[in-house]
Design brief:
Rossmann fold; 2 domains; 7-stranded parallel sheet; 15 helices
């Protein structure tokens, strides 16, 4: 009998607050573990969280990382686990260990800090340019999540073979629901009624200040709340300055939330009148598709990877043109329309499809070494 391929997965991201890279690993590997010809070794400091996500199938194993420190993890902890368990492939995101005992799979979600350096700290750019490029050169399989990011990696790092394994939309967003019931639940929990929503962590490139300007200058606060959901990673001085200048009556219509559970997140999406995604640069932009899948008018920036969502039919806007966004908001509020592109999203952005692309590349690579 042919020996099962052993795949190690670096899941240290599960020891942190919820991030998009965690969603990627969760969705992809919940599909991949259905392949019994492979054994999967998931590693994190808190393995109990991993077991909740990936279950207890015979081909699923859990390894405990000794430390949370990034450098110790990559230099000592992970190479030791890979060697001890005779792993054939190890999957990382962005940065791989310098000591190599097996083949490396590396998912690079984007290289936005090289394309848009003005939105990232100097030290972040210098450090990660070296680490990401070195990691790509020492990886055997390079994955990414969009055509835009694929072209970035090929051009900036001079790499030919990059495979797209797209992010996908959780089935819960496609499920039928009663809008009025959802809105009552939101009102009870958050004390808000009609609202716009923007889901994204906070960085200057995320353009929260632009959305706030449109919301205030067009007096939307009279009839709506603005709900901003996401971790505050980097300070947006323009947003802070505008927000601090507003009277309390308007500030009270701006709701800032972070560290929400997935259940609360999808509740807020489904209860919104409009979802708006004004980011200047993205490697993907999954909240755009999640809102559309839930039937919420989903407005999005027409830059970078978000151009791929043109099937959402004229809901894109220029993230530097406030009039453009205002017009798109008014059109969607007046129409009260639901998004009608659910089948396209289901077909193109699902984890089963991404897992098939992953396995195809893995099997091709594995056959070359036999």
């Amino acid at each position: 009998m042919e020996e099962k391929i052993k795949i190690f997965v670096d899941c240290h991201i599960f020891d942190k607050n919820f991030e998009g890279t965690r969603t990627y690993i969760t969705g992809l590997y919940q599909e991949l573990i259905k392949d019994n010809s492979k054994t999967f070794y998931f590693a994190a400091k808190n393995t109990a969280i991993l077991e909740e996500v990936f279950g207890t199938a015979e081909n699923v194993k859990y390894l405990e990382l000794a430390h949370k420190n990034k450098f110790y993890r990559l230099l000592v902890d992970i190479p030791k686990l890979i060697k001890a368990n005779n792993i054939q492939y190890a999957h990382f995101q962005y940065i791989v260990p310098p000591i190599k005992y097996c083949k490396y799979i590396n998912t690079i979600h984007d290289l936005l800090f090289l394309e848009y350096p003005q939105y990232f700290p100097w030290m972040y750019r210098v450090k990660n340019k070296f680490l990401f490029k070195w990691s790509v050169k020492h990886s055997d399989i390079i994955l990414t999540v969009s055509e835009y990011s694929k072209q970035q990696i090929q051009r900036l790092f001079n790499i030919d073979n990059v495979v797209i394994t797209p992010n996908a939309v959780n089935d819960v967003f496609f499920a039928e629901y009663n809008k009025e019931t959802i809105k009552l639940s939101v009102a009870k929990k958050y004390k808000i009624e009609d609202y716009f929503i923007y889901i994204s962590r906070w960085e200057p490139r995320k353009n929260h200040n632009f959305l706030l300007e449109v919301f205030v200058e067009n007096n939307y606060y009279r009839d709506f709340f603005l709900v901003l959901v996401g971790k505050r990673d980097l300070i947006n001085k323009k947003f802070n300055n505008l927000y601090n200048s507003l009277p309390e009556s308007i500030k009270n219509k701006i709701i800032i939330l972070e560290n929400l559970s997935f259940d609360d997140l999808q509740l807020l999406v489904k209860g919104a009148e409009v979802s708006i995604y004004p980011s200047i640069a993205e490697g993907f932009g999954i909240p755009i598709l999640e809102a559309a899948a839930a039937g919420i008018p989903s407005l999005y920036s027409n830059r970078t990877a978000m151009k791929d969502f043109s099937f959402l039919h004229d809901n894109e806007f220029d993230p530097f043109d406030k009039n453009d966004l205002n017009e798109k908001i008014k059109i969607n509020l007046n129409k009260g329309k639901k998004m009608n592109n659910v089948e396209i999203i289901k077909e193109k952005y699902n984890w089963k499809y991404s897992a098939l692309l992953f396995l195809e590349e893995l099997n091709n690579n594995s056959s070359k070494t036999k």
